[in-house]
Specification:
The protein is an alpha/beta fold and 237 residues long. The chain contains 8 helices and 7 strands, in the order ααβαβαββαβαααββ. The structure holds S-adenosylmethionine (SAM).
Length: 237
Amino acid sequence: MIEGRYETETGKRQFVRDLFNRGARHYDRIGTVGFLGTGSLYRRLALQRAGLVKGMRVLDVACGTGAVTREISKIVADPTLVWGADPTPGMLAVAHKGLEAQFVQGRAEELPFENGVFDFLSMGYALRHVADLSVAFREYRRVLRPGGRLLLLEITRPERAWVRFLAWMYFGIALPPLSFLITGSRDASEMMSYYWETIDACVPPHTILGALEQSGFKQIHRRVELGIFSAYGAVRD
Ligand SMILES: C[S@@+](CC[C@H](N)C(=O)[O-])C[C@H]1O[C@@H](n2cnc3c(N)ncnc32)[C@H](O)[C@@H]1O
């Protein structure tokens, strides 16, 4: 829970949905400028490292405006095999407009799909919005076929004090006003303020790794870049 933002899980869900609904049309622009255009390359490399190849049937959970979905589509090379799910209508509307894939409204904890229908499942930068990781990971296991692969991208609170300081300077101090400058929107700047708050309070790696193991995933591993960007991979047995 982030103090001062909401007090209950229902309040949090409503807050997050409203925040992303209002910020949706600015999300991609902030992503491009704020991360100097590196976000799409990082996402693509992470997908390839996790074993995504042409012809796989893929679900991108928390697809938002489609930042991960777009890279999936390039690799899979067939839009009929690519699905995105997200609870926020505003984010889905942007994704729908800019991308050829199937988009549905849905939460990680309750996915609107049959059992065992996907070869690969991804989730980018949304674990921090999920109340109970085990519930979401059981859903991921359910919709993946045996041998199906999982990729979770998430920011990790840096362990080293100086990395934490730099992260705070950039994400906490610089990015919210920079987002306002780029977009002229207070909603965009609030979305980025909350982004930092959730990084600072985000789920620690051992909790994510433990929940994956408890949910029955195998070959679980984590790769970290710059002490802050984590990619978690696993395989459904
Ligand atoms: C920071 S955006 C990430 C978008 C995209 N995956 C990316 O890599 O940029 C977080 C997204 O998580 C979605 N979200 C929030 N709670 C969720 C939940 N319980 N299940 C799935 N998605 C959720 C939000 O609607 C939002 O679109």
